[in-house]
Specification:
This is Type II secretory pathway protein. Belongs to the GSP F family. It is found in: Cell inner membrane. The chain is mostly helical and 428 residues long. Among the domains are: 33-40 and 47-74, no CATH class; 227-427, Receptor-associated Protein (Up-down Bundle), CATH 1.20.81.30. 71% of the residues lie in helices and 5% in strands. It has 16 helices and 3 strands. The chain has a 3-stranded antiparallel beta sheet, with helices on one face. Helix 11 (286-307) packs antiparallel against helix 16. The chain is flat.
Length: 428
């Protein structure tokens, strides 16, 4: 006897019932890395790695690719292996890959499958698989990306939404990929400008500490046999050496504690972060680079969002966070408020006293000519070149300056150690 089956209901339908409890969001099964070997249609043995939930699904994927699997085994994690984080560079590469596949006519779900299977970072592969599952469940790409707001920021999602609404998602993704690549290039330049001198000075401090703890005590033992008073300069370093030998752990602890306190204060105290950001912008050379970088990122981000069809006021809401500066972020909020009440963009920019006259003039021309996105793109390209040239010039200027610092720190110790010898030679 035939039995009637109850119609299937989706989780969304169940959730909207009166008094129904919202079901918990399902957790996606973590992907694992599998080694595989298979034969192609010619009988040639092929090997590789693939991300998957289990061996059977990996074998099914290999068969789908026209391969006959022979062995599939899970890759064992090393003792110190850990799950990686998704970097901004990986997001930029993903945007480029997805844009290219969609422009080639590959369906979105299949494109996500291909991109996810080629990821070496398990966290990235899992995230893309989760996004694909959301799309298969009926969500738009904008809604699916919204499940991962840390990796896909508001700017990225708003541009995707604009592309979906206009039916030009592939073009928007290609533009977003170019934007991400340019922004990451600027970030890399800024990191290079800040990291290089800090790293060299850190090495100089470590070398100085080694000399004070291990080398100077050896000289001191020799000086005791001279039977004469040591020069004041040498005595200064001998006392510093004795202090370091006795209390090196105190110096190390203070150094680590100061670094941790500084980082925690920067993360947890908006007032301290705002103060530090303002001081960095006032530095002689570094400040100019940071200003140019912020203006370049402001201009390129605003040009991209405006070109994608996002209204100007709404675009300004996401631009501030992309500048990489709290000062420019606050200025962008003030600009948005002025534009919202009817001011032209160039007038609002003039009021914050951060943008050079050339930027304001180019913005005004763009507004008058109806080509604001084009003018802002030109501004971004100009200041990106300024950042590149400034960083290259800074590297050239810092090299002799850093050599002077290292020479002074290490050379003064060497001179202090040889002064007693010169003094004895003079008395002979």
């Amino acid at each position: 006897m035939a039995t009637a089956t109850a119609p299937r209901t989706t989780g969304r339908q169940t959730a909207v019932k009166a008094g129904a409890k919202q079901p918990a969001q399902p957790r996606y099964e973590q992907l694992q890395t599998f080694y595989w070997s298979a034969k192609d249609k010619r009988g040639k043995v092929m090997k590789g790695e693939m991300m998957g939930k289990n061996e059977n699904l990996v074998k099914a994927e290999l068969r789908k690719q026209g391969l006959t699997p022979t062995t599939v085994s899970q890759k064992k994690a090393g003792m110190f292996a850990k799950r990686g984080k998704v970097s901004a560079q990986e997001i930029a590469i993903f945007a480029r890959q997805l844009a290219t596949m969609m422009q080639s006519g590959v369906p979105m779900v299949q494109a996500f499958d291909i991109i996810a299977s080629g990821q070496k970072n398990a966290a990235m592969s899992e995230m893309l698989t989760a996004v694909k599952n959301e799309i298969e469940g009926g969500s738009s790409l904008y809604e699916a990306l919204g499940k991962f707001p840390v990796q896909f920021d508001e700017l990225f999602r708003n541009l995707v939404r604009a592309g979906e609404q206009a039916g030009v998602l592939d073009t928007v993704l290609d533009t977003v990929a170019t934007y991400k690549e340019n922004i990451e290039a600027i970030k890399g330049k800024i990191k290079k400008a800040l990291f290089y001198p800090a790293a060299v000075i850190a090495v100089a401090l470590i070398v100085s500490a080694i000399l004070l703890i291990f080398v100077i005590p050896q000289f001191e033992a020799v000086f005791k046999g001279f039977g004469t008073d040591l020069p004041a300069f040498t005595q200064l370093y001998v006392k510093a050496s004795k202090f370091m030998v006795a209390y090196w752990w105190v110096v190390l602890f203070i150094g680590i504690a100061a670094a941790v306190t500084f980082l925690q204060a920067y993360k947890r105290s908006p007032a301290f972060a705002h103060f530090l950001d303002r001081m960095m912008l006032k530095l002689p050379v570094i400040g100019g680079i940071l200003h140019s970088s912020a203006i370049a990122r402001f201009s390129r981000t605003l040009a991209l969002t405006f070109k994608s069809g996002v209204p100007l006021v709404e675009a300004l809401e996401t631009v501030g966070g992309a500048t990489g500066s709290m000062i420019y972020n606050e200025a962008t909020k003030r600009i948005k408020e002025d534009v919202a009440v009817g001011y032209q963009l160039n007038i609002a920019m003039r009021q914050v006293n951060l943008f050079p006259p050339m930027v304001i003039q180019m913005t005004a021309i763009g507004e008058e000519a109806g080509s604001l996105d084009t003018m802002l793109t030109k501004v971004a390209e100009f200041f990106e070149r300024e950042v590149n040239n400034a960083v290259d010039a800074l590297s050239s200027l810092l090299e002799p300056f850093i050599m002077v610092i290292i020479g002074t720190m290490v050379g003064s110790m060497v001179i202090a150690m040889y002064l007693p010898i010169f003094k004895m030679a003079a008395t002979v």
